[in-house]
Design brief:
This protein is α/β, with parallel strands linked by helices. The protein has one domain: 3-Layer(aba) Sandwich (Rossmann fold), CATH 3.40.50. The protein is about 40% helix and about 15% strand. It contains 9 helices and 7 strands; from the N terminus they run αααβαβαββαβαααββ. Strands 3-2-1-4-5-7-6 form a 7-stranded mixed beta sheet, sandwiched between helices. Helix 7 runs antiparallel to helix 8. The chain is globular and about 50 Å long.
Length: about 210
């Protein structure tokens, strides 16, 4: 994950929870059903779990409620500090990202994340998926919730709608970050011996559940 995204999250830490609660109208649809999305990821995970992009610890809390052992990874120091205020003292949050992180000392069964995988280019996404395929045994899972588009036409139409509603920050995010399509993701997962299913939660966010074959 690029340094510019780490700096973005450092700046975002103080008002992240207000944003995901839907108080920012521009991003309200992106985060509609946020709590249900977190719960779905937590329920689909298998313990022990590596979580990327811990943020302020919201998904981590849901994983703990489900009884999972969590190895938490977050590149933003400010976000790590915010999460530590919410989480039990026995949850260690390590500095790292999707491609560079301290590997757990025991065999992990799931890799999870919400609202973060789009910060990787498609080539970086493939690098990450290939790496996770080596870490997970057969039956292990990758469970990511993120903005994904059914095709390029859906992506273009979403930008057009954002601009029509003068959601210019959202439109800029869609244009400048690395959002991808189901076709691309499915091909990457299958190339590295995963099968993948998608479940839609709002106009933007799908939960993808990839199982190692």
């Amino acid at each position: 994950m690029g340094r510019e995204f780490v700096e973005l999250f450092n700046d975002w830490a103080n008002y992240y929870d207000a944003t995901v609660s839907g108080k920012d109208q521009e991003y309200a649809e992106v985060f509609r059903g946020y709590e249900d999305i977190l719960k779905d990821v937590a329920v689909k995970a298998i313990s022990p779990v590596v979580e990327f992009g811990v943020g302020t610890g919201n998904l981590t809390q849901e994983l703990l409620k489900e009884g999972h052992k969590v190895f938490a990874i977050e590149p933003s120091k400010t976000m790590r500090e915010k999460a530590a205020e919410k989480l039990p003292n026995n949850v260690i949050i390590e500095d790292g990202d999707f491609l560079s992180f301290p590997e757990p000392s025991e065999q992990i069964q799931s890799i999870v994340s919400t609202y973060a995988f789009h910060h990787l280019t498609d080539s970086e996404k493939e690098e990450a998926i290939a790496y996770y395929g080596k870490l997970l045994d057969k039956g292990g899972k990758i469970v990511f919730a993120d903005t994904v588009f059914e095709n390029k036409e859906a992506y273009d139409a979403t930008i057009e709608q954002a601009e029509k509603h003068t959601f210019l920050n959202l439109a800029n995010d869609l244009k400048t970050e690395y959002y991808t399509t189901m076709e691309v993701l499915t091909s990457l997962f299958e190339k590295h011996s995963f099968t993948v299913e998608y479940q839609r939660f709002n106009h933007f966010v799908w939960v993808m559940e990839a199982t190692k074959q």
